[in-house]
Amino acid sequence: MSDLSRLLKESWALVEDKQDKVAGYFYARMFLSNPQLRDLFPVQMDVQRTRLLSAIVTAMQTIEDPERFAEYLGSLGRDHRKFQVVPEHYTEVGKALVEALRTFAGEDWSLEYDQAWRDAYQAMSERMIAAAEADTNPPVWHAEVLTHERRALDVAVFTCRPMEPLNYRAGQYVSLECSYQPRLWRPFSIANAPNKSGELEFHVRSLGAGWVSGALVRRLVPGDMLRLGAPMGTMTLDRKSTRDIVCVAGGTGLAPIKALVQELTQFNRTRWVHVFFGGRTRDDLYDLEELSELAAAHPWLSVVPACSADEGYAGEQGDISDVVDRYGPWREHDFFVAGPIAMVRATLRKLTELGVPSVRVKYDSFSK
After folding, report:
1. What is the pLDDT of residues 293-311, one digit of tens each?
2. What is the pTM of this model?
3. Cα–Cα–Cα angle for 204, 266, 248, rounded to 5 degrees
4. What Gene3D superfamilies does UniProt report for this protein, alphabetically (predicted)?
5. Among 287, 284, 306, 286, residue whose Cα is nearest residue 295
6. What is the CATH number of domain 3-134?
7. Which of 90, 149, 345, 49 is nearest to 361 (CA)?
8. Would you tell me which CATH number, out of the four given (2.40.30.10, 1.10.10.10, 3.30.160.390, 3.40.50.300), belongs to the domain 141-228?
9. Residue 246 to residue 276: CA distance in whole angstroms
């Protein structure tokens, strides 16, 4: 571990249990010093605060891996073009971030920690700015909603078509804004592989009082316009691998898994693919019919649905991570995991127990 990485992790430990306060102070300080930046952010800042901390932690985790560090920050820089961010904004953000960390770390904060964060942030911002300046794509894509179908009380599947070509890889996600909740961007996985029509499919579950998810499930209609950010995420296929594949999906985490399976139908002949699709009740298995049709058409594909809280369900019972365990061994497989945060974490723990090397497990960590 480099000195920089060590200093970042040590200093982060001083504020880790105060993340909400750090984020709140950071935004308050930034907006106080630069009121014009407030218009770049949504009125409701609760989710935005979480995203800031998630980006910081992810960057810290990848700083020791130059390739992952560059890939993650490059995609983040391209995505931030939708906020009309310019290089000068990065300077102000860096000042506010270091001040917030220093304030809540208290007496244990040192000059070494201060300089480490300045150095790390400088490296992060340089990569983000360079990626944004080199990007020839639009800052945002305007897309028209084509179809909208309620698959369950709180789940909708809809399709849209961007006005300009949007190049992405199966398994990636984009941030999305709708007219019903302006300036509120939320990440959603694209549920289909790239196709000639340019259409994109999304699966959305309305999460409690979720501002955006609720609007997308209950209010969105064909003809509405959406705005999409740049594609992000690393949960993509390695076509060089010859290992068989296991996909584990929970709820609408099925979206990127379905896109990966669609891509595999275009070229795969030799790799067995096992899809485990879990939900609390059978209503959560909202796309099982289409998955079953794919399995019937492709002998190398198997689908195992499961319910964790539906005693009358005739199929597999239990948490999806435990169901996967029952079907092993899996040490020689590539894994893709997507779904609610708790489900992803449980599955990652189970795969570690089963001896699956972490380098063979792909997942993207973001909350919807």
Report:
1. 999 999 999 999 999 999 8
2. 0.83
3. 45
4. Globins, Nucleotide-binding domain of ferredoxin-NADP reductase (FNR) module, Translation factors
5. 287
6. 1.10.490.10
7. 345
8. 2.40.30.10
9. 8
